Structure formats: C-alpha cells, structure tokens
Amino acid sequence: MDLVDVTIVNIAIPSIQQDAGASFSQIQWITAGYALAFAAGLITGGRLGDIHGRKRLFLVGVAGFTLASALCGFAANPEMLVASRILQGGMAALMVPQVLSIVHATFPARERGKVFGLFGAIVGLGAVSGPLLGALLTQWNLFGLEWRPIFLINLPVGVVAFLLGGRFITESRAPRAMKLDLVGVALVTLGLLMLLYPLTRGRELGWPVWGYVSMAGAFAVFAALVAYERRKAARDGSPLVELSLFRVKSFAAGIAVQTVFGVALGVFFLVWTLYMQTGLGWSPLKAGLTGVPFSLAVSTAAGLSVQKLVPRFGRKVLQTGALLMAAGVLLYIGESHRYGLDITPWQMALPLVVMGAGMGLIVAPLTDAVLSEVPREHAGSASGLINTVQQMGNALGLGLVSVVFFGVIGDRLTPAQVGPAFVHAFQHALVWVAAVLGVIFLLMSALPKRPAQHVEGEGSGEEADTAAEAAAADGERGRERALVG
C-alpha cells in the first residue's frame, strides 16, 4: 500500500497540478511532504512498536494511512492535499517498520526465508503495477473524479488489512525496548524544514533574505542535534542517531552515498514525470508504459548483482552501477536534445535500460556493503538510519527541483513555449543528476572492497539473529524504495 501509493502519485502529479490548480511549490510538497514525514518518523515508529506492541502500532498506522488517503482523495484544495500527504507519510512511518518486525516475531528462523521471498515478490509487484495502475486510474477519470481515485483505492485495501491484521497478527514487543527520543525527532524535522521550505518556495517568492537565513540556521540546528545526541547516548543509551556508528569508515561513507543517492532519485523522478506529461504532452498511460523498461532493468540487474556479481567483484559492482546510471543520464540528455518534442518512447528505451541496469547494481547490494563492518548489536539501529537518510535525501532532492528545474523555466509562458521550456529544463536537471552520480562514484571508494559478514559484537545469539534479520530486511526495503521509479 505504501509503495503503490508513492508510485501512483508520481505518475499523477501533472493531472493534480492541472485539475487542482496547484503551484509548482505545492506540487513539490505533495511528494516531498510525504517523504519528509516518513523519514522523520521511521525510527520513532519502529521504537513505538517495540514499546507498545507491533500489532497495535501496525493497526494504528493502517487506520491512519487509510484515513489520510480519504482526506487526500477528497481534498478541497492544494493546501489540504499537501497537509493530508504529510499526515499520510507520518502514518506510513508507524505502519511500515512493524511489518518486518512482525514477520521476525511470528515465524521461526527456518521459515523466514520463504516469507522474505514472498515479501520480495510483493515488492516487485508493487513496483511494476504502481505506475501502470496510477496511469490507468488517471486516464479513466472514474466518475469524473480525475486524479482522486489514486488515493481512494487505498480505502478498501486499508479496511481489509485492518480487519485481517486485527484477527491474525500476534502481538509482540521487544524484550528491552529503547526509550523514545522525541527531542531528536523534533530537531531533525525542524532542521529539514528550515532547509527545504526556502528551497521549494524561494524561486516563487523571489529568493527573500529570510530564506537564506533559514537555510544557514538549519546547519546550526543539525549541530545542536549532534550535541544533544551525544549527551543522550551518555545519559540513557537510547539516542535517535547512534553517533558511534560514524566512527566506522564504511558506514559513514555509506550513509553519505544513501543520502546523495536519495537526492538524485528525488530530482530525477519528479522532473521526468513533468517532462513527459507537461513538456511532451503525453497521457499518463503513455508515460507509465514508457517507464516499464526501466523497472524491468532495475529488477533484473538487482538479482544479478546480489547472486552473481558482488560475491566475485565486490564494491566494483556498485561503482560500475553509478557509472552506468550516469552514462544512461547522459544518453537521455543526448536523445532529448536530438529529437526534442518529437521524441518517442522507444527512443527513450536505451537510456532508461542503461539507467535501470545501473540502479539495479547499486540498490540491492548497497545496504549489505554499508552494514558489513557494523557490529551486530548495532545492525538494527544502523539499518533504520539508512532508511531514514535515504528518505531525507529524497525530500531534499524534491526540494532542489525548484532550483535545477523550475528555476530554468520562465514565469510567464505561452502555450507554444511550454514544451520547449520543459524539455530544456529537463536536460538541465539531468546534468545535475549526472554530476551527483559522479559524487556517488567517488564516495563509494570508501566502502569495503568486499562486503563481509557482520562483525561479531557482544550481543547474544538471539540479538545477533534479530540484527541480521534487520539488516536483511533493510536490503529488501532499500530495493523496494529504489524501485519506486
């Protein structure tokens, strides 16, 4: 439900903009607001489940997500839609972390492989079906509701999930749950808002002085977060961010890779959708079908990288993936420049397959590479932090769209100027994406040459098992997030 919802919204963005009269900054916040709320609440959502019961938090999250979906579907204006999306992201942060924890608590170790296999299949189904479902629902304009069915489809799914979950899920809690760090969550959220809000509204407001002050102040807030987390770790051992992890070189580099990778994905997927539907004037269905080769290439390369390539070539596979993605982006710029407004889906296929293959080489093994030198007893905290920074990077990338894409488009365009302006802005944004991928390639040089088994810590066998499951689960979750495109 979470994954399909994200992909559906991506494909329906231009329709929402036209029908609801949303501004460019509101369009950014419809996607970035969800990512920000989801990122800020992920670790807290997991800990709430450990403390108060995973089944209870799952059901609360499902109910809240379903209610937020209804509010999105019946939103009277863009402001209500943005607020509802932020609520939806917060509810997803309560719901999603419980899923794999419930699997671990419910099934014995010998059965979990089959369950995680089924989980991966559902992730793949969601990744492929989401864009197509969103395109069809938008194209069909059911009952004259335009884009609204993309949110309302969650209602029956949510009701069924709530009823079946209440009946069949067994309640579980962590034997030694950590305390909540609400101050840490507040500081992270405040810092990101101070950074993202001026980025998304700055162009529209003429880049006022307060925007620059706010962005500079965000770094002061992050510095305060680091100082507070150090004191909290010394006081009760339950900080939001386990700062000791950053002493592990490969983990620190991996967190940087995840964050910057999230920025690249946030920029690309939004501008890609706007380019195809607003710039080229394609229907949602045509745009959705154009992305199928990309998704298939990601899935195929992801399977090959984990099973065949990484065991033999190690981090070179990830670095090759970054170079392949950059090559695909540059190919896309060339094709877009060559064919202009007359470009066809089949002319986009080669760049998209190259990009997808590169992404597949990265997303599947990246989490294992980042976690390979982290002590077992910290694997759970580390995997949660990886998910969080990837979502934060995604939100930051969506905020940067205002600068690298909308900043290139004129404020007053005639209908004849819209297409060429969006094509030019798309090419400009892709130059930035290629540069970001180059930075990712350099950062990857600090990852281990070959991801090893997790370093043995002092935890018990059961704790080690739990940490290993968390790490494995995060690998699936990372693959899920990257397949959103």
Automatic annotation (TrEMBL):
TM segment ranges: 27-45, 57-76, 82-103, 115-137, 149-168, 180-197, 209-229, 250-275, 287-305, 317-334, 346-371, 392-409, 429-447
Signal peptide extent: none
Keyword Transport: yes
Major facilitator superfamily (MFS) profile domain sequence ranges: 1-453
UniProt subcellular location: Cell membrane
Annotated spans, Disordered: 453-485
Topology in the lipid bilayer: Multi-pass membrane protein
S-adenosyl-L-methionine as UniProt keyword: no
InterPro entries recorded: EmrB-like (IPR004638), MFS (IPR011701), MFS_dom (IPR020846), MFS_trans_sf (IPR036259), Tet-R_TetA/multi-R_MdtG-like (IPR001958)
One Pfam entry name: MFS_1
Chief location bin: membrane
Biased composition (Basic and acidic residues): 474-485
Entry keywords, A to Z: Antibiotic resistance, Cell membrane, Membrane, Transmembrane, Transmembrane helix, Transport
Protein known as: MFS transporter
Organism: Streptomyces similanensis
